[in-house]
Each structure stands twice: as structure tokens, then as C-alpha cells.
Amino acid sequence: MSGNRSVVYHGTRDLRVETVPYPKLEHNGRKLEHAVILKVVSTNICGSDQHIYRGRFIVPQGHVLGHEITGEVVEMGADVELMSIGDLVSVPFNVACGRCRNCKEARSDVCENDFVNPDADLGAFGFDLKGWSGGQAEYVLVPYADYMLMKFNDKAQAMEKIRDLTLISDILPTGFHGCVSAGVKPGSHVYIAGAGPVGRCAAAGARLLGAACVIVGDQNPERLKLLSDAGFETVDLRNSAPLRDQIAQILGRPEVDCGVDAVGFEAHGLGDEAGTELPHGALNSLFDVVRAGGAIGVPGIYVGSDPDPVDKDAGNGRLHLDWGKMWTKSIRLMTGMAPVTNYNRHLTEAILWDRMPYLSKVMSIEVITLDQAPDGYAKFDKGSPSKFVIDPHGLLAAS
Ligand SMILES: NC(=O)c1ccc[n+]([C@@H]2O[C@H](COP(=O)([O-])OP(=O)(O)OC[C@H]3O[C@@H](n4cnc5c(N)ncnc54)[C@H](O)[C@@H]3O)[C@@H](O)[C@H]2O)c1
Ligand SMILES: [Zn+2]
Ligand SMILES: [Zn+2]
Questions:
Q1: Do 71 and 137 belong to one domain?
Q2: How far is the CA of 209 from the centre of ligand 2 (A)?
Q3: Fewest CB atoms less than 10 Å from the CB: which of 191, 204, 385, 392?
């Protein structure tokens, strides 16, 4: 094999599908006997990729994008013990070693192994994080395979549900982690900021955890409709009524037990400010509507430096937060990447046993070819309600 067709970054809103070298079992000059090469079965476009697309995360020109990967093992290093050629596997988006202190303490979101990333204690495919090449490609290298990969035991059964299971590499565990960190449990009232794919997965996760009422807020009516059609409560943030009043109309009181920020640093304001970027918009709305003693999970991404910020403070990751309000309400806050390995097996079982039969509909899964990926990015950027799933080998189309 000589080439690998891939989605390659060339600059802001400039992605091209090009042939790059086929991956080897090596990275940054080191041979990796613990790695595998996967034939990519499905690879999704994520809101995190959109931050790159819009020029808000820097990645080197020529880098292959994509971190939401499901694939089939086609090559293995000599030290891989638990995988076999032909296995269908889900890849957690976090590159993590499974050997360092954080990984051993189930914190694969902050792997501190310098080979994974010497510059920061985290790793992921397809970002500027020590060059791990992305999975929006025909083939991809995955290190630490025995630790990283989650194998689907029944390949045919998994392929039947691949439109749901493709979400296991990132956003379903991420949305679920947001809910778990926010303390969602049977009977909870939950407010989720953001009806993008992560917010919709968080809504599904909250329902799975037994929440009594799940309310999702956004200013995108098409995305909200996907949720209301599946029986979730929604609030349209273009409405000038304060969010507390809109929540009170649903619940009879203006506050919820648990909040999830599924928006991140490219947030908009609410009401009259719904068309304006306001990096603290989602967080401050959550500080307002989560009750005293409640908790908030923040899977939405915030950055230490933003190359195209709305103001100087945002450029350095400094937000204008209602911190005093949040502190006096004694609200707990969880931040950071989601440790996908902590949830992927359980959520796979929940899908296989039909615990979320509405999932692919709420997610509005749209399968596209590799060549259609730049178009998928452009549509997602404009607020499309679809979750785009790239099918590099036509395996989903065939299944
Ligand atoms: N922590 C993790 O491990 C992890 C994993 C995956 C994605 N993410 C991040 O999660 C975030 C959401 O991802 P996505 O794919 O759903 O992205 P997305 O951009 O499609 O969705 C964000 C939604 O938030 C809405 N929004 C904007 N301002 C708002 C506000 N103030 N209140 C409520 N809604 C508002 C937007 O209209 C949009 O529909 C992104 O920042 C992404 O990078 C984090
Ligand atoms: Zn993602
Ligand atoms: Zn580690």
C-alpha cells in the first residue's frame, strides 16, 4: 500500500482531500510495536474540528484532521496481544498511554506521557498535539492498541448499528460524561446549553441516566426540532425572555439541578445578543439557571489562546465570568476532555440493547464520502442539523 486518501488542512476553511503516505507502525522516529493500523470504517466530523476549520485552533498545514474513528485492524505491532487482524474497533479520541499515573487512575483525558505529548498533559488524533495524524482518511495509526481500542465482539451486529456506534469514539461518551459530572440521576432536572451533536448526545445521556426533565437551549431551530421531536424540552435562545423565565414556564421554577455546557468558547449571547459571539455566554447562562448546590459539566472546549478572538482577554483564554454568583451558589464545575475509555463499553451495550432507539434520528446522521468531507465541514459550519459521518471505503453505504 503506498497512499492514503485523507482530509488535509491547508488553512481556515480550506480543506482538501489528498493522498498522503500510508501510515507506518512508527511515530516521531520511534517504531511502535504496541500500535496498529486501522482501515477506517467510519469517521465523524466534530464541533472540535469546526474550531480548526474556522481558524480558532491552530494545526500545521498539511495535517490530516479527524479524531472520531471506528476501524478494522489491518496491521499490528509485535507487542499487541489482545487484538487480531480483522477486528472491528472503536478508537477513543484521546491518545493515551494506559501506563502513566493519570491513565492508571482512569484519567485518559490527561495522559501525562511525554511521548504522547511533551507540551501538555493531553493527546488526541488530528490536532496540533504532537502530530498524531487524524482519522478522516482511509487508514490511520493507533498507538497503545491493547489499552486504547474497544473491540466490538460481534462484527456483523455492530455493523448493523454502526450509525449509532460511530458516536462511541467521542461525542456520546463526551455528552454522557458532561451529565455524569453534573450529577444527573433519576428524577433530575437538567439544562443543556447547546443543541449541536454534543448537546444532543448529552440529552440522550441524561435520559439514559433517568433524568425527569431534560431542557436543551440553542438559537438554532432545526437542531432544537430534532430534540423536541424526540420528546425533549427545548428553549429557543433567540427569544428575548430571560432563560430563567423560559425554564420556569416548563418546570414551574426557574432553576435546574444540573447543567451541561455543550457549547464552548465560540458561544453566542442570549436574546438580543444571540447573533453576537460572547465567549462566556453559555457558562454565565448556566451559572444563572443551575440551583445552589448543583453542578455543571463543561465538555464544551475553552482554550488558552485563540488566534481570532472577539477581544484581547478572550485571545488569552480569559473570560468575563459571573464567578461571584457561581461561587456563592456553591456550584461544582467539571471541565476538560472526556475520558472516553471510562464510558465507551457501557454505552455500546446500551446501544446494542436498544436503550437509545431514537439516537440516530436525534443525531440526524448523514453518511458522506471522503470526497464530500469539505462540503460536510462547510454545511456543519453553517449550523446544519446533521452529524456528518465519513465513509471512506463505502462500507456504511453497503451495509
Ligand atoms: N470535552 C470534550 O472531550 C469534547 C469532545 C467533543 C466535542 N467537544 C466540544 O463540545 C462543543 C460542542 O460540540 P458540537 O459538536 O456539539 O459543536 P457545535 O458547534 O455543532 O454546537 C454548539 C451549539 O451551541 C449553540 N450555542 C452557541 N452559543 C450558545 C449559548 N450561549 N447557549 C446555548 N447554545 C449555544 C450553537 O448554536 C450550536 O448549535 C465544542 O466546543 C466541541 O469542541 C468537547
Ligand atoms: Zn469530536
Ligand atoms: Zn498515560
A1: yes
A2: 22
A3: 385
